[in-house]
Specification:
Number of helices: 17
Helix content: 55-70%
Distance between the termini: 20 Å
Shape: globular
Structural class: mainly alpha
Largest sheet: none
């Protein structure tokens, strides 16, 4: 797999939501790409045999989880979560409402859900991808009670909050500044995210690292190194309590939209690396970079620039 392919997958999880929401956004608001479903060949094969993979896993540094809990993970009724938080004044609850909305709308509820529904009808009922689709549809079903006018109104409200930055993750805020060529402000925002030691904020920096990679004149080797580094932010977040289980919300979304449904998020990421000696080197680099990120977080003032150096 080329470094460009690695980068594409490395940005998948943190960028997933940007491909799902607000089809009416303008190009200035990071207009999302059309969803492309993978409806065949959805399973993935781990590197080597199980013993080999276990040996590689043992190289990963272990860090105790922080006890972080994502309210969206616990919610079986995302409409209820949305209604409870949509009119809140604090940013954290507004962001929670936005995440509930963007998970379900427009692909799992409302008139626009017909497009995804028709595509899923082409799959056998027992495929993991279709099972994941049914699970998300169940969690989103109460959004169907909204009228067309209510959907349009909320779409506009949530899009305005997104465009204005009110509901962006810490990493998305930093990425936006970087895209606007406000480098100093972007670094400051990324450092603020690091200092929170919050698993969700840490995982969101994965996209920031990818944007930094694309916005700088790096040679091919440096790009390949930093694309692995971007993925390491997800592994580090997993070790700090980010929900990475196979049945987590992010994993379920990934299964629906990409067809990659085998294992937890960490195992899926590892399985995308080449199944040869170069892949093993990349895995070891991934573990080393994960350790590097976690060590940086032990400092009183962690610095993202340290983590951007190839």
């Amino acid at each position: 797999m080329s470094h460009k392919q690695l980068l594409a997958f490395s940005l998948f999880l943190s960028g997933l939501v940007l491909t799902l929401v607000f089809a009416t956004q303008t190009p200035d608001d990071n207009n999302p790409a059309t969803i492309r479903l993978v409806t065949s060949g959805s399973s993935i094969t781990p590197f080597g045999n199980s013993n080999s993979l276990n040996e590689i896993r043992s190289a990963e540094p272990l860090t105790a989880a922080t006890g972080y809990t994502d309210p969206l993970e616990l919610s079986k009724d995302l409409r209820a979560t949305f209604e409870k938080n949509k009119d809140a004044q604090d940013a954290a609850r507004q962001q929670l409402a936005y995440r509930a909305w963007r998970t379900c709308m427009p692909n799992f509820a409302g008139p626009a859900a017909d497009h995804l529904r028709r595509q899923m009808q082409t799959l056998a009922d027992n495929t993991p991808q279709k099972i994941a689709y049914r699970q998300l549809t169940e969690r989103c079903k109460n959004f169907d009670q909204l009228s067309s006018d209510e959907i349009r109104q909320q779409q506009q409200t949530q899009q305005t909050r997104w465009s204005g930055g009110a509901v962006r993750t810490a990493g998305e805020q930093a990425t936006q500044l970087l895209q606007q060529d406000q480098y100093t402000a972007a670094i400051q925002a990324a450092n603020a995210a690091l200092k929170t030691r919050n698993p969700q904020a840490l995982e969101s920096l994965r996209g920031f690292v990818g944007t930094y990679l694309r916005s700088n004149s790096l040679d091919e080797e440096q790009q390949a190194t930093l694309s692995i580094r971007a993925q390491a932010f997800t592994l580090a977040a997993c070790q700090l309590g980010y929900p990475c289980r196979a049945d987590s919300l992010a994993a379920t979304e990934q299964c629906v939209y990409s067809g990659i449904c085998e294992g937890n998020l960490r195992e899926r990421l590892l399985a995308t690396l080449p199944h040869d000696a170069s892949g093993e080197r990349q895995r070891r680099q991934l573990f080393s970079d994960t350790d590097r990120i976690l060590q940086e977080l032990q400092k009183a003032n962690p610095d993202i620039q340290t983590l951007l150096r190839p």
